[in-house]
Amino acid sequence: MKQFNYELTDISDVHEALYEVYTYTQRNQYKSILFHLYTIRFNDTDISKVQNEILEMYPDAKIGGTSSNGDICDGHLAEYGLVMSVSVFESTDIEVYLYECAFGEEYSIGTTICETINNIDKIKAAEILITLKTINSTKVLSEAEKCKKNVKIFGGGSAAFAIEDTKTCVISKDTICRAGVILITYAGDDFHISINHAIGWKPLGKELTVTKIVDKRLYELDNVPAGKIYSKYLDIRPDDNFFANMLEFPIMSKQHGYEVLRLPFSCDIEDNSILLAADVKQGTTVNLSYGDPDVIKSDVEDMIWNVRSFAPQAIFLYSCGVRRLYWKYLINKETGPFSLIAPVSGFYSSGEIMRMGEYIIEHHVTLIAIGMREGGKALAQPTGIGDKEIEVPEEQKMHGQLSMVRRLANFINVTAAELQKANDELREMADTDVLTGLYNRRMIQGLVKTGLEHATKYKIGVVMGIIDVDDFKMVNDTYGHVVGDDVLIRVSSIIREEIESIKGGICGRWGGEEFLFMLSNITIDESKKYVDRIRAKIAVINFEEIGKVTISIGLTEFKRTDNAETLFKRADSALYEAKNNGKNRTIVH
After folding, report:
1. Is 267 left (phi over 0), alpha (psi -120 to 50) or beta?
2. What is the mean pLDDT of residues 108-117?
3. Nearest CA to 519 among 477, 567, 469, 573?
4. Is 90 exceeded by the pLDDT of residue 554?
5. What does the pLDDT look like over 2-48, one tens digit per residue?
6. Phi-psi region of 565 (alpha: psi -120 to 50; beta: other; left: phi over 0)
7. How far apart are CA 85 and CA 369, in angstroms?
8. Cα–Cα distance list, 426 to 291, 414, 420, 422 (Å)
């Protein structure tokens, strides 16, 4: 296999490039010749001229290509124009198929791709180039993945100069197609291929559940309009700048157990729904994500090592346009090192396609590296300078960095506030009884201990009381726990209202149908008047199904020789006497 890559900025460059290839093929035997065309700026007329010049020199040439968000040649971002990548195969059979796809034909096209792959003898790999923005790629790929499991599959989605633009195309021998799929097949005993990918984005914040999505339009996350999630956490508004502002923060999910990113293209101002580059299943858990430069660099370095170990004769890089926009003037540092291994070409796409296990997965914000060779491992064939420097004004560099820092700072502030709120709620849950909302036993014990220490130190009068709902076991046994819970809720509400109306009054649920309260700066006689008012209020309530209920109260006053245990025992003894003397009464000890 011999690889030639050409960076064309004008149609006049094509002839000279083809002449170099022609010179090589005149001296060396070959079985197939494949031309990949990647273009960010050539129009239909220019592309047609390139197609015609190729076919004039090589009538049997195989041609497959796509519009792009940027072209890669010898590991660097090419000048605006077209990259022509020429692969000369000694023993590999190459075929290129174009499937134009009308609306609703996606499943059928996917089935045809599957059948085509299955019918090719000795097929090793298949490449799919697809107009992701005009057809439902999920439907195509879900059928195509039913093909032979040993066939490696890779590819990318066509893109445009402006990555959000929907006007893209795929290119065949003699056609430029706005809605369709190019299939390139590689078959032969001597053909070898290695496919690796790198992401480098990390989950940001808590998991969110996709609660409403229709096709590629995401309406709700955790029952909240999806656009409002970006607005709240990252201060990204649903306006004309939505896409540019959220590039560094795609949605992360798992598909068939593999980590994938989903790129939002736009946000509807009216309903805050988000149009995704590819669909996500309803009920899936997702995260916002962010690009961590160190993680991205580490992932790519691992991939470079894998590609170098494979020792290819040619490398193709299919990378998301978002990575190009993320790295900006540093993008060649990600792709350049591959050019020290073998000739490199490729393009910046709207989606990256790769078979993983049994599934063909459409990735976004991902870099896929495809190494190819015929025969055994090849010697390194360095080409060019790789990480060619891209000039950019200093203020532009700083703006991109500050924008991401500001949005991450907003995320931290919002999530910190949410965490504080959650902690407050947890603290409240730890201190309160779930059913009644009163302090629970642990909390009321602590408050009593503190209150008695305070009373001893400052010689303050304190009264403790225990309230018990009369015959409550019979209520539960006869009418059930739902009715019993309703009784406790209504009784506790009155207790709380009356006790907390007294300055320094605290109350809680002691356990079961028992409630404990403590009053400060008050005499025992005044306390009895208050609690008898509670008893009278409860006695006149007519509970549905069971009629009226009553309460008994044990009351006692704090003495200087008391501690919490002796005070409680006296109050409990008073309650016991109230229960044994007819109930519905207050006893003081």
Report:
1. beta
2. 98
3. 567
4. yes
5. 999 999 999 999 999 999 999 999 999 999 999 999 999 999 999 99
6. alpha
7. 15
8. 32, 18, 10, 6
Q: Which amino acid is at 60?
A: D
Q: Is the dihedral of CA 404, 405, 408, 410 positive or negative?
A: negative
**CA nearest neighbour of 299 among 186, 196, 161:** 196
Q: Confirm if 555 and 528 have CB atoms less than 8 A apart.
A: yes
Edge-to-edge strands, sheet with 71-73: 76-77, 71-73, 344-349, 314-320, 367-374, 191-198
How would residue 407 be classed by pLDDT, with cut points 50, 70 and 90?
A: low
Candidates 499, 497, 539, 529; CA nearest to 516 is 499
What pLDDT is recorded for position 382? 79
Residues near 459 by beta carbon (within 8 Å), at least 6 away in sequence = none
The model scores a pTM over 0.90: no
- Which of 524, 516, 522, 531 has the alpha carbon at shortest distance from 503? 522
Q: In the predicted model, is pLDDT for residue 405 greater than 70?
A: no
Cα 555 to Cα 578: distance, rounded to the nearest angstrom: 10
pLDDT at 108: 97
Distance CA 77, CA 347 (A): 9
- Residue 112: pLDDT band (50, 70, 90) is very high
By CB atoms closer than 10 A (0-12, 13-18, 19+), residue 398 is: exposed
What SS3 state is found at 301?
helix
Tokens describing residue 100: 């134009």
pLDDT of residue 399: 43
Q: In angstroms, how far is the first alpha carbon of the chain from the final one?
A: 102
Answer yes or no: is pLDDT of 63 > 80.
Answer: yes
> In this predicted model, which residue has the larger pLDDT, 245 or 427?
245
Percent of residues in the chain assigned helix, strand, coil, to nearest 5: 35, 30, 30
Torsion of CA 155, 158, 162, 164, to 10 degrees: -90
* Full strand arrangement of the beta sheet holding 586-588: 506-511, 514-520, 462-469, 551-557, 586-588
Q: Are strands 123-130 and 152-157 parallel, antiparallel or unpaired?
A: parallel
For residues 188 and 151, what is the distance between their CA atoms, to the nearest angstrom? 12
Say which DSSP state 377 is in: P
User: Is the distance from CB of 224 to CB of 214 less than 8 angstroms?
Assistant: no
Provide the 10 A C-beta neighbour count for residue 456.
Answer: 14
C-alpha to C-alpha distances, 68 to 26, 65, 107, 408, nearest whole angstrom? 32, 9, 25, 30
Cβ pair 313, 1 in contact under 8 A: yes
Provide the pairing of β-strand 62-67 with 32-39: parallel
Q: Among residues 381, 386, 373, which one has the least CA distance to residue 310? A: 373
Torsion of CA 218, 220, 222, 224, to 10 degrees: 140
Q: How many CB atoms lie within 10 A of CB 452?
A: 19
Distance CA 566, CA 544 (A): 39
CB 462 within 8 Å of CB 571:
no
DSSP one-letter code for 78: P
Q: What percent of the chain has pLDDT over 70?
A: 92
| Measured distance CA(370)–CA(346) in Å, rounded | 10
Beta bridge partners of 554: 466, 587
DSSP state of 428: H
